[in-house]
Amino acid sequence: MTMKEEIIIAGFGGQGVLSMGKILAYSGLMEGKEISWMPSYGPEQRGGTANVTVILSDERISSPILNEYDIAIILNQPSMDKFESKIKPGGVLIYDSYGINKPIKRTDIEIYRIDAMDAAAEMNNSKAFNMIVLGGLLKIRPMVQMENVLLGLKKSLPERHHKLIPMNEAAILRGMEIIKKI
Question: Which helix (H) or strand (E) holds 62?
Fold first, then answer.
């Protein structure tokens, strides 16, 4: 069976959305998958919205441009307003409750909540936020193996930050513990 996951990760600039997508893409690369990583910044980049489309596939990717997604990771209300309707029926929505203030309308998708903002605060590390979210994703859709995520981290972090990898690994594992199906 061939694997193909079409993912959108969307939130505020500064939440580590793009780097989360990049680490996911690198991890796929380490496993010999075909990947596409396409960032998109709103014109209001600082404090505005940012999103990245990541496609991981066993086969060639025909187009990096998507109108609907298998998985949406949504980290703020403007992104929820924009992308909730674009999740394929039967797809997955993962959201951080922090900053999402309207009820989710969809009933034809799997919905998961991850309180990553709270967990990052508990870990005393705001930078761990996106890795906690990534951990949640990998718990419900183990599309790449942990060792390749750590290799992906090594590849995407400058050498001087490699000492942060154990903290990132802890954050990923924390995310795996706290994601909850709604």
Answer: none
- Check pLDDT > 80 for residue 95: yes
Q: Strand 69-74 relative to strand 49-57: parallel, antiparallel, unpaired?
A: unpaired
Distance of CA 66 to the CA centre of its chain: 16
**What is the distance between the alpha carbons of residues 142 and 145, in angstroms, rounded to a whole number?**
7
Q: Give residue-wise pLDDT tens across range 149-174.
A: 999 898 888 899 899 999 999 999 99
Q: Which long-range contacts (CB under 8 A, 24 or more apart) does 149-153 make?
A: 149/23, 149/24, 149/27, 151/26, 151/27, 151/30, 152/23, 152/24, 152/25, 152/26, 152/27, 152/29, 152/30, 153/23, 153/26
pTM of the prediction?
A: 0.93
